[in-house]
Amino acid sequence: MILMNGQYRKDISSKTEVYIVLKKDQRSGKLTRGIVKDILTNSSFHPHGIKVRLDNGQVGRVKKIIKR
What is the DSSP letter of 22? Predict the structure, then answer.
């Protein structure tokens, strides 16, 4: 399992397994694991992570990408 940061849109696609930080967890840095459903950030790079919607509806910024 390889972990990558989630700052580049090109590294993320639908069905990618990721760890995101939810808005409510930004202060604590608690990560939530899930599968990407939609990519919400339009730019190719974001310093705090690309914003995505998971298949369970949660929205947050990608902190780690899980490559198998």
Answer: E
